[in-house]
Every structure is written in C-alpha cells, then in structure tokens.
Amino acid sequence: MNISDAIREGCKTTYQYFGGGFDGNNGYCAWGAAFVGLRGNDTWMEVVHNARQMKVDGCPICHITVNNSGMLLNDIAYVIFHLNDDHKMSREAIAEWVETVEKKIENEKAQEDTKQTEVRNPVVVTGECVIAR
51's torsion region: left (phi>0), alpha (psi -120 to 50) or beta? Predict the structure, then answer.
C-alpha cells in the first residue's frame, strides 16, 4: 500500500480535522487518516518511512517552501499537513496530489533503473555485427 491509498482508506471511516493530527474522537487530518488507513497493515512502518523519504519542491498551491512556523516544506508529510491545515484542502484531493508525486517518483526510478541496465549491458555495433556485452 502507498500513502495516497492509505489516506483514501482512512477517509472511509473518519472525518476531516484541522489543526492537528486528530481531535480525540474520530477526526483526523490527512496524515492521520493515512495512519488509520494503514491499521492492520504489516508494512505500515515501511510505508511511512518511504513516504517520509519523498521530497517535493514546496506547496503545490502557494509554492512556498517554508511555512509560518518555519517548517521546511520539502518532506511530503509536512506538505500534507500544510495542505490540510493551511489550505483546508480535502483529504481526498490531498490523496490525489500525493498519488501524482508517487507516480512521478516511480517513473524517475524506472528511468534510472533503465539507465543503469544500459550501462551494465552496453550494445556495441562493429561493422554489421551487434555485440551485446
């Protein structure tokens, strides 16, 4: 499971809360909804760790890179908090944005893997013969 799916799953059983992770009842911010969505998932720590490694270039709405509290908005978790609390963006819309980031990172990784494979297995053309190494 990835973070965007975890947010969507958490949205099914909770309502949106602003100003913190949760309200003590059943209200959760988008990041909190992800944790609710990951309940019972054996890989939840890995999912959260991987998400925290996802770097972004600030807020996709206002394009700031540091919020009013001095929090750097280069970690996707901090941007999720910012979108939830400062822009009052719905958790479902936040999940859609997170999914675009996940796909972008996945595509970049696939391109990098392809480049590494090409370097390990170069094809040499000599005359009319093709030699794969």
Answer: alpha
Angle subtended at Cα 122 by Cα 116 and Cα 123, rounded to the nearest 5 degrees:
145
pTM comes to 0.79
Give CA separation, 20 vs 50, 81, 90, 104, in Å: 22, 8, 15, 28
Task: Give the integer Cα–Cα distance in Å for 67 and 26.
Answer: 27
Q: Would you write out the chain's pLDDT as a tens digit for each of its 133 residues?
A: 899 999 999 999 999 999 988 898 999 999 999 999 998 877 788 888 888 888 898 999 999 988 777 777 888 999 999 999 999 999 999 999 999 999 999 998 888 877 776 666 666 666 665 555 5
Q: Which H or E element spans position 27? A: strand 27-28
Residues 34, 10 contacting (CB under 8 angstroms): yes
Dist. CA 29–CA 84, nearest whole Å: 6
Q: How far apart are CA 28 and CA 79, in angstroms?
A: 16
